[in-house]
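Tokens for ComE protein. Go.
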Amino acid sequence: MRLDPAGLATCGPGAVPTGAQALALGLKLDLNAASESELALLPGVGRDLAKRLVSAREEQGRFSSWEDVDAVPGVGAAKLETLRAATVLDAAAANGGVW
């Protein structure tokens, strides 16, 4: 899915949607590439957890499993389910690009 010059979602050429646009289109974030501000847009995540997720990723490298994500302080079972529903760990599964 891409955005045409008018900002409408289309199939084919165009820009990869980012931030709130991608979330509104129901696309999943690549947890290993999303910025702190993008992660903070997810329901129930907020700035603090987004910052911890990005810090953990920078310190340990890419998240390779959901257990890695669960080990981040503040994630817990409920947040992990939210993250699993809204993100992917593999960029190829994120519908092209980081989204």
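The radius of gyration is 14 Å.
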